[in-house]
Amino acid sequence: MNNEEMSRLVDKARRDVLLYRILSGKLDYSNSYIREPTQKIKSIGLKVYYETLKDCEDVLKDQDILIFLIDTKQWSFEEEKKLKDLPKDIENTKVTYYKFYLDPSSRKKYKIEIDYKKKMYSDLFLKRNKYSNMTAQHIAFGAMWFEMINYMYKGSDKLSAIHYYQKNTVTDEDLRSIALSDEWLSYFTASKNPLGKPAIRMTEDQRRLISWTNLYKNCRSNPEAPPDNVFSDHDAFDGWLISEKRKDTANKKVNTIQTKNPNASNFYLFGQSKEDIEEIMSLNTPESLQKIENEFKST
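Above: the chain's sequence. Below: its structure in token form.
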């Protein structure tokens, strides 16, 4: 067994462990466990969050933190804009990644670009929020967790339990892989209600798992569903999903125009911003883009 196969085997085992943690609604901790918050526990916590937030009128706001960061040259307006624009930029790159998925060299190139932009966003986000613990929202959030942990964990060191729980949250990437796993699907396909309870009694991770599983199930039944290997590549699947959503939006616009100009053979959609233009252009296949380029060259 080579290193790559071993890595896949270890990763599968880790996600199987996560699956049974999600199903149990408990996180093992210090010879005991931390319960996932139920609806009742969340209700108690949110009341504390609300009451604390109301009492934080004189606490620093995010805008105050932003001004301080810029004034002390720890942050810039350019970085603020970059942080705001990167999510849409990553979306557009995912769409391109999906469209060139069958070309190995292009696929590798765009995958590197996506990973680079994700890392850039993560670094900027951490830098921008380095003092977020001083804001009213963060103080209220802390008070909420100090209240909820009393119902989630019976041990004495509540603060350590909070830190451990938050450090070990199930990521979306893991949850999506679990939703596609044979281990979970053996339960999901065997019953209409594999968890044996209504959604209102499920933990947050259980609801997220059901939601992702149903999304994948519905997408597989789509006549234009992508190949199986795209489903297991989260960035490529996101690209397909974003592309389908944009196509649906564009088709509605074209249908509106077509009712006014039924004899028109070509339709051109115009954007008001750079982001709009990038979205519109992402709707075209590589062949369509080449055709558009040729048409403009001939005019």
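The chain has a mean pLDDT of 90.
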